[in-house]
Amino acid sequence: MKRSSVCAPNPKIAAGKFDPFNDRLSRDIRNSLSEAFIDALARMEPSAYRAEADIWRSKNPSEIYLEYIQYRLQSYDQVFNQIKNSRLVDPLLQCLVIWNNGLFFEFHDHLEGIWKLASGDERQALKGLIKAAGVYIHNEVGHQRAVKSLAGKAYRLIRQYSHSLTFIKNLDALTHKLKNLDPVAPRLENPALPED
Prior knowledge:
The protein is 67% helix and 0% strand. The protein has helices spanning 11-14, 24-43, 47-58, 63-86, 91-100, 104-117, 120-140, 144-160, 171-179.
């Protein structure tokens, strides 16, 4: 049976305890772990994000940071194994696995690398998906003005350039949730994706 939505966001983020928008250490940890994770996917070798996590843990940060690091490591391992076991080499399909595991910042980072190389309608369509990820990133910390603004922009771009997003089989589910400001992200489907 397919799930209709992705896993719940990290409760430590949702509670505002780990806040990369207002706390420099949170932002640095989030950004460096994400960058290491994307590098690990490119090489299909998890050592990059594990080493980055070890560097942060060796600095003895407080519990909220350690919990975030541990949560991300578990999520990264899950995504990495799904991608590896399914032999997904297409970066767009990898992005969907990342999204479906609730890693919206990492989705944003991974897709941004693809977006930079795209042009025309594809570039605009990917920009819409990046903004959609931003909706759920801001939602985790309760930034409702940003959620509303990004949701509108994402909705318009995705609707206008949907012909360039054929790798997502249920695009209407995403646009419906964006239009209605639904805080629960949809699972993005493609027949090549592994079941959770």
